[in-house]
Design a protein that fits this description.
With about 375 residues, this protein is α+β, with helices and mostly antiparallel strands. Helix content is about 30%, strand content about 25%. The protein contains 11 helices and 18 strands. The strands form 4 sheets. Strands 13, 14, 15, 16, 17 and 18 form a 6-stranded antiparallel sheet that branches. Strands 3-2-1-7-8 form a 5-stranded mixed sheet, sandwiched between helices. A hairpin with a 6-residue loop joins strand 5 and strand 6.
């Protein structure tokens, strides 16, 4: 008796953004967690120059060994393309001096890409056009959530509480630095200056006064010509909550968790997030009064639905000294290693890492591409 074919999952990672290495780390964990008895898995890396290649999928290659030893996709491996055929969408591998060889149809893509050219709706749009199902948010929700300035507009329209902010383009800074300085001063120092479409705390700086503004802008502009200037939530606690789409019914929320940054870090920067010797502590679950935890989970669900998310999201909050909650941002493809906050929150809620990965794949397989 012929066994039915297993669904083929293409795990796509790397990419052209500054979060290339973090995407590789996430991919290593996801590849190790997918049940090969249930799914046929194909690891596809996107090199920093945009080339798609058939990667090894070795989780050991995807580890951060230190600040100067970050993982990356090998651009010299065999090229991979998606080819639309009569029966679906096939993967085709091309190697030097060899004819192209088809790997077969792709049933679902798990795009563990962070930042622009991946988490921002670009690959989602490509997959929609190719007719391939994929894990996570669709085109609009991905694009809105990636751009922090537009995300704030959407969340504010939904009545969610936010920190005051302005957006500044590199062109504005070049043509009218004095005007930008005046607008920033009206917000009140200290201020955070961050790439509007970045993540993993890359390019973020804190300006305590006007004298530190220029350096912070220039550091952020390296990663994005559009920058968000936001009031610092002084004295606030940083709390996060996971949202997971249900197979049926309303989205579910995880127990909240808290980030406590120690050592010499003034905020939750790249080193505090990803380097193991740093002194950041993660409390899962967070020590919160029941009513605060309940409100935070309710706001998380509202934020998820306001931007039209699908699959998963992590919603980040500030718990202010007066006890009020403020939404910081929403991530449609949060860090996804077993040690990352999103999986840890769900593990504490009763969904372990392999089950979480499996559920996201099943959610993607169950939905159609196109308008929904």
């Amino acid at each position: 008796m012929t066994q039915p074919a297993k669904p083929r999952v293409a795990v796509v990672f790397g990419g052209r953004s500054s979060e290339h290495a973090i995407s590789c780390v996430t991919a290593g964990s996801v590849l190790a967690a997918i049940d090969r008895d249930v799914y046929d898995v194909v690891p596809i890396g996107i090199a920093t120059d945009g080339r798609w290649v058939l990667e090894s999928g070795d989780p050991d290659r995807m580890r951060i060994e230190g600040p100067d030893r970050l993982p990356s996709v090998d651009p010299d491996r065999a090229s991979v393309t998606l080819e639309r055929v009569e029966t679906g969408t096939d993967l085709v591998v091309t190697e030097a001096s060899r004819p192209p060889r088809p790997l077969g149809e792709v049933d679902v893509v798990f795009p563990v890409l962070h930042g622009p050219w991946g988490e921002d709706g670009t690959i989602q749009g490509m997959l929609e056009m190719a007719g391939v199902r994929y894990v996570g948010a669709g085109v609009l929700a991905s694009a809105v959530s990636m751009d922090k300035a537009y995300m704030k507009i959407v969340l504010a329209a939904a009545g969610l509480p936010l920190m005051p902010s302005i957006s500044v383009h590199a062109r504005e800074w070049k043509e009218d630095a004095a005007g930008v300085r005046s607008r920033a001063a009206e917000l009140g120092y200290p201020l955070f200056i961050k790439p509007a479409r970045g993540g993993s705390s890359i390019g973020i700086g804190k300006a305590h006064d006007d004298s530190e503004l220029e350096a912070a802008f220039e550091a952020a502009f390296v990663h994005d010509p559009k920058v968000l200037v936001e009031v610092s939530a002084e004295g606030a606690r940083e709390i996060e909550c996971g949202v997971l789409q249900a197979l049926e019914g309303t989205p579910e929320t995880s127990v909240p968790a808290e980030i406590r940054v120690g050592g010499d870090h003034d905020f939750y920067d790249f080193e505090a997030k990803y380097l193991p010797e740093e002194s950041t502590e993660l409390d899962v679950p967070a020590d919160l009064p029941d009513d605060v935890a309940a409100e935070l989970r309710s706001l998380s669900r509202r934020a998820f639905e306001a931007v039209g998310c699908e699959g998963l999201a992590r919603v980040d909050f500030f718990l202010m000294p007066d006890g009020s909650l403020v939404v910081n941002e929403l991530n449609t493809m949060p860090g996804f290693t077993p040690l990352s906050m999103y999986p840890r929150m769900w593990a504490a809620t009763g969904v372990d890492y392999p089950s979480l990965v499996d559920r996201l794949i099943r959610l993607a397989l169950a939905r159609d591409t196109g308008l929904r």
